[in-house]
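Teaching assistant here, posting this on the class forum so everyone can see the example we discussed in section. The complex has two components, and the goal was to see what a joint structure prediction looks like when all of them are supplied at once.
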Amino acid sequence: MKPLLSYESIQSVLKDTSPGTTEALAQEAAALTRQYFGRTMSLYAPIYLSNHCSSFCTYCGFNNRQKIKRIKLSLTEIQNEMRQVSQTGIENILLLTGESYAMTPISYLQDAVEAARGHFTGISLEVHPMETDEYRALYRQGVDGITVYQETYNRKRYQEVHLGGKKKNYDYRLGTPERAARAGMRSISLGILLGLGDTAEDLLALFQHLRSLEKNYPAVEYSLSFPRLRQIKGQGLAPQTIDDIAFTKIICLARIFFPRVGINLSTREPPRLRDHLIECGVTRMSAGSKTSVGGYTLADPSAQDPQFDIQDNRSVDDILKMLKQRDFDPVFTDWRPIPNI
Amino acid sequence: MNIKSERLADTVNRAGQTDPFMVGGKVLSSRFLMGTGKFKNKAEVRDCIRASGTQVVTVALRRIDLTRHEDNILEYLPPDITLLTNTSGARNAAEAVRLARLAREAGYGTWVKIEVINDSKYLLPDNAETVKATEILAKEGFTVLPYILPDLNIARALVQAGAATVMPLGSLIGSNQGLRVKDLIQILIAEIDIPVVVDAGIGSPSQACEAMEMGADAVLVNTAVATAGNPAGLAQAFALAIQAGRQAYLSQPPGPRPFAKASSPLTEFLYNESTAS
């Protein structure tokens, strides 16, 4: 079953309450995933370098109005985190910061990337949006991938929830994947924050955005993420609830429309759901993640508020065991760090 | 693997001995080359190698885990196998060249499948960049097996560049659609003197057999085997189909005819005066 790439068609799939529809989507998504990715699953882990942020996004626990303990790791602390993560076998690392151009400038990121090169074969960044020449510099230093979510493609909704900082600028954020692609980045990850806007509308816009990037920058390996918005402490924002059924359908739709595109699933989803969704479209999952700054090595990470709470607390070894039991071959290395020129 | 499949693999190999397949100075008896991606575990790759008798397997250098020593694909390969590292992930000639050199430095030999893909949606090879990479690597002593879209001019350029084979796709990689570009491959078989190995899109033994019957020198399969219900069983079926196709090609089958062949000739009287009335 392949619905049309239209608002009505996506909306009707999401609204359809029949279990048969969900199953049909899942079967189609599973067949496409096995055809194009086989029974392999790429693994990655995040390292949070800093929670300083100059933007005010109403839904985010790191926003500049939150009274949280702000931490930025020193280079030694970064090294410690990396050593700890690399000992688990993880080779693909995602380095994250809040969006603070002043606290985590490109020079800080470059130091972190240089350190990461000693431990990992694949390095991606989820940090504040940058200019093409800055991405180019990071690429040449060894960054392979950029993750940047538009959060919602609806301009009005975007303005309602992004109240301060550079992230207020919808168009600058929208142009970010293209700037990263022009810089030569090997992989780019796009996403929407489910629950923020109208899901069908955001999905359609995300898919159209991806189609246009595919046409203009065909060499890039794209992947999609669908983080679900959760209530944060002290915020009145009541997110729309995307239940597990809708979430599963969204993953399946992404796979059906984009058979070769990677689909990421983080530890913010619970084990039971993750273990089942690896059959229906997911191709990359994080494992053993800590989502607070210094979470792998600092003395008392529980004193901190993470960006989001982890629901899958299993270790990398546990995830490996689960994958093998379910007949998946875990993939740690996806690339050789040859110099990016 | 059971005894029966061992015997079948032996049969496949013995048949090859009278009709050797030469690549880069190496004599191969099996014309079935196998890819190692997409398998559910690495033991299954080893079972497929044993069951099919394949002698050349291609491994993506980017997927070889150099630091973790547990569960490394290379540990599952028999010692006498020829390792064909591939440059999967390379987007241009320069990246392919760097990967090939890295493979050689890491001790993985000098056989390299050039895979330059600049299109993450269809995974179509970039022929022009492939020629450039082949030229550089062949000069450096590599045995180069380039993966291409079937194009006679490109294939000729690859011969000039020192390629050991040309490896045209049969259809989109991973698609199992068989020989969608059959006529173009047929032209390569007719005109190119180095081995022609059909590399991608072969989804069933009958399709592999068809490629061999038309004169391809070998077939490389990955997705169909890796994603089969019984990979080792299918790998063996591919090896046998490839052997059958080769034997059929060598035996010059009569080929189909659009109309019935008259069993009573119509013009024999012109040449044989004794033909009645």
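For the discussion questions: Chain A has a mean pLDDT of 91. The domain at 7-328 of chain A is CATH 3.20.20.70 (TIM Barrel). Think about how each of these relates to the inputs above.
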